[in-house]
Amino acid sequence: MDALETWTRSEHTADVAGRPTTHPVWRKGVGPGVVVIHELPGLTAGVIRFGEELVAAGHTVLLPHLFGPVGREFSNLDVARVFPRICVSRELTKLARGVTTPVAGWLRSLARDLHAELGGPGVGALGMCFTGGFALAMMVDDATVAPVLCQPAVPFIGLPGRAADLNLSPADAEAVRRRAADGCSVLGIRYASDPSVGTRFDTLASLIGDAFIRVELDGRGHSTVTEHRSQVAVDTVLEFFGERLR
Questions:
Q1: Is residue 49 part of a domain?
Q2: SS in 3 state form for 43-93?
Q3: Angle CA(221)–CA(68)–CA(89) in degrees, nearest 5?
Q4: Which DSSP letter does residue 131 get?
Q5: Where does the Dienelactone hydrolase domain lie (predicted)?
Q6: Is residue 93 part of a domain?
Q7: Cis peptide before 155 (omega within 30 of 0)
């Protein structure tokens, strides 16, 4: 069965780096809205299964498709195929420090539209791995009131200074600090031994203090809510969204 057979497909168009850009979006569920941003190599079956858990918990879930295959199980071969395209994409940051990924503007627009439709305090956003920091960038906009960062891994570690970088411009980092001071919390989840996250959680704690809810899981996994799914991680996300979106 097609993993997205019971989901409704649409498209969303918004500005990315000065150009109108369209991406497909799959939707399912009723209740407060949550935008789930997939990881490498694409909108995998594991990401969709996690989306189904959010639907079952009483959320309207949007799964935007930004790159890579759709509906397939995770494979390293797909990662190898998709990675070169990611590297040349103008929508996505990879190595630059102190900048916000350009596609954040598109994601903010998607969240604003969902919030305008559903009402309530706002929407949740969850990014993972390559897109982990994207949910933080969405917090710049008032529509996103419950950002979740699962194992944020960009900019890629390997050159000096990148392990601590939050994938935010200075202006956006200041906006995040102000929103946190006004009561918007940020949830971050990682496996404690995962090297790809670097010291970003330390940076975020320094930026927003007690507004950062830090969850470090035991073990050597990476994908906290998908391929190396932790029930603790999933339960924490569900509780976080439940408290802040209802």
A1: yes
A2: ECHHHHHHHHHHHHCCCEEEEECCCCCECCCCCHHHHHHHHHHHHHCCCCC
A3: 105
A4: G
A5: 31-146
A6: yes
A7: yes
CATH of the domain at 36: 3.40.50.1820
Please count the residues of the chain. Answer: 246
Distance CA 130, CA 83 (A): 11
Q: What is the pTM of this model?
A: 0.97
- Provide the residue-wise pLDDT of the chain in tens; the chain has 246 residues: 699 999 999 999 998 988 999 999 999 999 999 999 999 999 999 999 999 999 999 999 999 999 999 999 999 999 999 999 988 888 998 888 999 999 999 999 999 999 999 999 999 999 999 999 999 999 999 999 999 999 999 999 877 789 999 999 999 999 999 999 999 999 999 999 999 999 999 999 999 999 999 999 998 899 999 999 999 999 999 999 999 998
Mapped to the 3 state alphabet, what secondary structure does 142-192 carry? CCEEEEEEECCCCCCECECCCCCCCCCCHHHHHHHHHHHHCCCCEEEEEEC
Give the Cα separation of 226 and 244 in Å (integer). 23
Tokens of 209: 């203090």
Residue 28 falls within a domain, yes or no? Answer: yes
Q: Which of 30, 39, 45 is nearest to 246 (CA)?
A: 30
In a domain, 132, yes or no: yes
User: 234 is in which domain, residue-wise?
Assistant: 8-245
- Compute how many other C-beta atoms are within 10 angstroms of the C-beta atom of residue 78: 17
Number of structural domains in the chain: 1
